């Protein structure tokens, strides 16, 4: 069993708004742990538009999605945020002592007086194979992510997809697998040119196979796959022997387990008041794209403002007997110490 982590604040979502919360909480002396489904930080900025410029971050005339995320990480660094990636926040209950207990899909347990839902448009989850009966193979011979590379050692592996994830994993796993076939519906790839070139070289040398076509069926008994049916451009179906399939068909966003936590929802968004962005459940706050209130704008700058205000009230749950003194970062020696610039 994993250790139970006790902290001041558990943040669900490591998007830009969750990341900035670490900074605002840190100034008030509060420690944070963050949970995200993705295997990286940055939410929509990192996943959907890492190379596109953003023009409306105050005082930053232009920066890309990934640059914003990198800078938020640098800004949060003095406060040592702890990240728990590749796992979904699943279960949230209130303990008898008034704190919350949050459990993730990987079984990690947190206890904290404050929970912050910065879940954006919901969890990024993989798009699954739209084939009847595919569920039966999932986790044993059908996978949508790589948790452990060893899972694929010595197997006849098919990697499906034409983006960076598919190409990166095909390149990383081919030395481990007994055989590796990349399957994509057309002979064009949306991945880094360098990866595409490496893949082409491996195919030319016979170290990897490339099949152009669409997966139309899975063959095998129960959870063990024996072959994958593939329809080629001419409409002909071939059966390709395989005992592992790794499919990368992109990600979609869904509200997920949050929907069942009894927080007041309105059209899949969490309703909050605008003084402290607290939900209907005292001690659970929500900020960023996941919330709704009169006048809400789904902008990063609004999420930053919500984070700052939220932390003021969150402090009271963490330190009920202490008074919070308002301070500027420019002139407070106490804040300078916390920031490590004293
Ligand atoms: P997100 O960035 O959505 O991050 C939420 C994170 O929470 C995700 O990583 C998700 O996996 C995780 N999560 C959710 N539920 C769970 C769970 N149960 N367990 C674990 N993890 C969970 N905004 C601007 O201000 N300016 C722009 O120019 C701009 N351009 C944009 C361009 C595009 C193409 C898109 C798609 C959006 C743009 N936006 C822009 C909007 C901006 O990206 C969002 O407002 C911002 O990302 C919201 O941040 P967030 O932290 O609230 O949520």
TrEMBL record:
Protein name: Ferredoxin--NADP reductase
EC number of the protein: 1.18.1.2
Names of required cofactors: FAD
Domain FAD/NAD(P)-binding, chain residue ranges per copy: 8-294
Cofactor note as given: Binds 1 FAD per subunit.
Quaternary context: Homodimer.
Family: Belongs to the ferredoxin--NADP reductase type 2 family.
Organism lineage string: Bacteria, Pseudomonadati, Pseudomonadota, Alphaproteobacteria, Geminicoccales
Substrates-to-products reaction catalysed: 2 reduced [2Fe-2S]-[ferredoxin] + NADP(+) + H(+) = 2 oxidized [2Fe-2S]-[ferredoxin] + NADPH
Provenance organism: Arboricoccus pini
Domain of life, per lineage: Bacteria
Keyword set, alphabetical order: FAD, Flavoprotein, NADP, Oxidoreductase
Any one GO MF annotation of this record: NADP binding
Pfam annotation, one family: Pyr_redox_2
Binding site for FAD: 36, 44, 49, 89, 124, 289, 330
Enzyme class: oxidoreductase
């Amino acid at each position: 069993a994993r250790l139970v982590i006790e902290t001041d604040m558990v943040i669900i979502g490591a998007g830009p708004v969750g990341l900035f919360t670490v900074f605002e909480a840190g100034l008030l002396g509060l420690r944070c742990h963050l949970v995200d489904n993705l295997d990286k930080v940055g939410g929509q900025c990192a996943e959907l538009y890492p190379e596109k410029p953003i023009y409306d971050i105050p005082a930053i005339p232009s920066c890309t999605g990934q640059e914003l995320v990198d800078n938020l990480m640098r800004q949060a660094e003095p406060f040592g945020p702890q990240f728990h990636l590749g796992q979904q926040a699943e279960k949230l209950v209130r303990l008898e002592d008034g704190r919350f207990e949050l459990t993730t899909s990987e079984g990690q347990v947190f206890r904290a007086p404050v929970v912050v839902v910065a879940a954006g448009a919901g969890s990024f989850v993989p798009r699954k194979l739209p084939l009847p009966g595919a569920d039966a193979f999932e986790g044993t011979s059908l996978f949508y992510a790589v948790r452990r590379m060893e899972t694929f050692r010595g197997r006849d592996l098919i990697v499906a997809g034409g983006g960076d994830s598919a190409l990166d994993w095909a390149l990383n796993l081919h030395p481990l697998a007994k055989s590796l076939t990349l399957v994509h519906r057309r002979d064009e790839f949306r991945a880094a040119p360098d990866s595409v070139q490496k893949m082409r070289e491996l195919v030319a040398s016979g170290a990897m196979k490339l099949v152009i076509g669409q997966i139309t069926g899975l063959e095998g008994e129960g959870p063990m796959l024996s072959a994958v049916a593939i329809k080629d451009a001419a409409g002909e179906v071939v059966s390709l022997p395989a005992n592992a399939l790794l499919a990368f068909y992109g990600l979609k966003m869904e509200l997920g387990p949050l929907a069942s936590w009894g927080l007041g929802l309105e059209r899949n968004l969490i309703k909050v008041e605008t003084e402290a962005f607290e939900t209907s459940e005292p001690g659970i706050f929500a900020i960023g794209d996941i919330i709704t209130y009169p006048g809400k704008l789904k902008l990063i700058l609004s999420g930053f403002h919500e984070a700052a205000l939220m932390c003021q009230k969150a402090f009271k749950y963490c330190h009920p007997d202490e008074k919070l003194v308002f301070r500027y970062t420019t002139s407070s020696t106490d804040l300078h110490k916390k920031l490590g610039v004293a």
